[in-house]
Write a structure and sequence with these properties.
Elements lengths: L1 H7 L3 H21 L12 E5 L2 E4 H19 L5 H6 L2 H22 L5 H9 L13 H10 L4 H22 L6 H12 L1 E9 L12 H10 L9 E9 L1 H6 L5 H15 L4 E9 L2 H12 L4 H7 L4 H4 E6 L6 H7 L11 E3 L2 E11 L6 H33 L4 H7 L5 E6 L20 H5 L11 E3 L2 E11 L10 H29 L4 H8 L4 E6 L10 H7 L7 E5 L6 E10 L8 H30 L1 E3 L1 H8 L5
Antiparallel strand pairs: 1-2, 1-15, 3-12, 3-14, 4-9, 4-11, 5-6, 5-8, 7-8, 10-11, 13-14
């Protein structure tokens, strides 16, 4: 937009128009005041919940992060059109409104949580623990960055989540699923069926002669939309995040070796020892006990004399860093196996320490970890560079430079895709390969236009700038261009039609008392069977469509359904239905009860939130919502 204004005002006519426009704006501000433009929603507010505003930028960021998360799970970007088709835009809006309503209620009730309690929850989160089971700051930072959080934002978000859980926990306290519901769902879930079936394929469809020109032309006219060329866009983009910038950062062996020396103990596998200790009240008793051990008293007998159990004495097989008391740790890792220490003055008293089995540690070599250390150093240095590069890119863009021009000037590597459709495919049908997984730059480009100065996309702790360089509109292809595709699809439709007719005839014979084996023998096919499968089962060779159809069919009834492969049709007969008795004490039933309880809890909390929203008041600016989610670009 800035480039457009600058270009428009570069001649005398443009300057005159811009002067008039700015004059009108200044006069209107002088008459009405700037605050007038913020009445009601304003252009930046997407929704209001009580006293809380959800800004367009706030929701845009949440929406972008959600699409990126889903894209990473699928291994390919999710377009905004696909997101709307799945209803993700409305789901996220309702979720955001519900969270805001609970936050408002928490403030009304005066609920709070201390910083210490919030940090305790984070430290105890198993997602942030390293291999030693202890909170790992590096893992914590990496994981929250992956989902676009700063540390301050994540801590604040967890505090809000905790307060919402307090409210939800109070509402759902005492809920239990009815036994009748548990019994009915258990029977539904555990019901098993057996079938016999045959598979019809293209061979049973018989010979299909090539279509006449008139037949093919008529088929094409009826199905033109299937062969239409999609809209393609030419786009360029550049990624500036720690991972990408790190690729351009050279790290010397000297720097990597320094980090290696600092982390040598953590990079390898530490020595572990079987450690036992007896705490005595003072040095005199400890020395006397040690002398008795030297005279032949066993360590275990000394522990029994003092009324100690093995769990009181044994510290287990542990590393030196896992022993809380430094003095005890030092003594334990200086003794040979089987030896007992002299009295050690520790934090909790005077200790005698015994060493059992010793597992040697594995010392890492620099060469084995050099590559990972260099990547880590490069990423750390890159994080400091990302902010600086962002500012420089914005300056270049504000000065009228395209993404490619700005990237090249700053020594970055831009990517240009000459033609890509909404689904991320090239004209040849292949998926684009030079877009990082989880980056939805293609779908963003289809909500923009040529010459538009787009906002950067937040991505993996950094930013992505993109331009739409050209648009090739969708068009109807002539028959000559897609003749082979049309003929192949016509043939597939003919095969499917014939197989469906043949399968229908077989089912009618079975319903009249016929035998599937006789039908199979007449068609030169083999009867196959699948036994005792449940609704969620997947017997080898049996498509999900057959399983679903079998559970809609009575015992001894027959049915037909399309197979998993193209040109395949399946005829089946249900041979048996079994419903096992309900075992209330089984692990499966316990899991079912937990699932039902979660569902009932969600329903109860949902009703509470709906009432809250009604009492507090909710307003949605549909125009801003459509703009943020790309709905007004279609």
């Amino acid at each position: 937009m800035l480039r457009g204004l600058r270009k428009a005002s570069s001649n005398w006519l443009g300057k005159t128009i811009m002067a008039v426009v700015m004059g009108v704006l200044i006069i209107s501000f002088g008459i009405w005041g700037i605050a007038d433009i913020f009445r009601g929603f304003g252009q930046s507010t997407l929704a209001k919940i009580g006293h809380t505003d959800i800004s367009a930028e706030q929701f845009r960021q949440l929406y972008s992060e959600k699409l990126q998360q889903i894209g990473r799970q699928f291994g390919r970007p999710l377009t905004t059109d696909q997101a709307r088709a799945f209803g993700l835009d409305r789901q996220l809006l309702q979720q955001t409104i519900a969270e805001a309503a609970l936050d408002e209620e928490a403030r009304r009730l005066g609920l709070g949580q201390s910083d210490a309690e919030t940090m305790r929850m984070i430290f105890n989160d198993p997602n942030f623990k390293g291999v030693n089971g202890v909170f790992d700051p590096g893992r914590f930072q990496a994981m929250i960055r992956q989902f676009g959080y700063s540390e301050r934002r994540y801590v604040a978000d967890q505090r809000r989540v905790s307060l919402r859980r307090q409210i939800a926990g109070t509402i759902s306290a005492g809920l239990q699923p009815p036994n009748t519901l548990i019994d009915a769902l258990s029977r539904f879930q555990n019901e098993a069926r057996s079938i016999e079936y045959i598979k019809l394929d293209a061979a049973q469809a018989g010979t299909i002669d090539p279509p006449s020109p008139e037949t093919l032309a008529g088929y094409f006219d009826d199905h033109k939309t299937l062969f239409r060329a999609p809209e393609y866009r030419k786009i360029s983009f550049v990624v500036v995040n720690p991972e990408e910038v790190g690729k351009w950062t050279a790290v010397s062996d000297e720097d990597a070796k320094k980090l290696f020396e600092l982390r040598r103990d953590k990079l390898g596998t530490p020595e572990r020892r079987e450690v036992s200790q007896i705490i005595l009240p003072n040095a005199e008793e400890a020395l006397a006990a040690r002398n008795r051990i030297g005279s032949g008293l066993s360590f275990d007998d000394l522990a029994k004399e003092r009324g100690l159990t093995p769990s009181d004495v044994d510290l287990g097989m542990i590393a030196k860093s896992e022993i809380i008391d430094p003095a005890v740790a030092g003594a334990a890792f200086s003794l040979p196996s089987g030896d007992v220490s002299q009295p050690v003055q520790g934090k909790f008293g005077v200790a005698l320490v015994k060493i059992g089995k010793i597992e040697p540690g594995v010392e890492p070599t620099y060469e084995s970890v050099a590559s990972n250390l260099k990547k880590e150093i490069a990423a750390d240095r890159a994080r400091a560079s990302v902010s600086d590069l962002r500012d420089k890119m914005e300056d270049e863009r504000g000065g009228g430079a395209s993404v490619v021009e700005a990237a090249q000037k700053l020594g970055l590597t831009p990517v240009t895709i000459d033609a890509v459709d909404r689904s991320g495919r090239l004209p040849g049908g292949q998926l684009v390969t030079n877009v990082p997984p989880g980056l939805d730059v293609v779908s963003q480009a289809f909500t923009s236009d040529v010459g538009v100065d787009n906002d950067p996309i937040q991505f993996n702790g950094g930013y992505v700038w993109y331009d739409v360089l050209g648009i090739t509109p969708s068009r109807e292809r002539p028959l000559d261009e897609v003749k082979d595709q049309v003929e192949a699809r016509w043939r597939d439709d003919q095969i499917t039609s014939r197989l469906r007719t043949k399968a229908t005839e077989m089912v009618q014979k079975l319903d009249q008392g016929g035998s599937l084996a006789d039908d199979a023998a007449g068609a030169g096919l083999k009867v196959e069977a699948a036994s005792a499968f449940r609704r969620d089962g997947s017997p080898p060779g049996v498509p999900a469509s057959v399983i679903a159809a079998a559970f809609r069919t009575a015992k001894d009834g027959a049915g037909q359904v399309a197979g998993a492969a193209a040109g395949e049709w399946i005829v089946f007969r249900v041979t048996d239905i079994t419903v096992p008795p309900v075992d209330v004490a089984s692990d499966e039933m316990k899991k079912l009860k937990e699932t039902l309880l979660r569902g009932l809890t969600d329903e109860q909390v949902g009703q509470y939130v709906t009432k809250l929203e009604s009492d507090i008041g909710v307003s949605i600016n549909e125009a801003v919502f459509a703009q943020v989610t790309g709905a007004n670009n279609n």
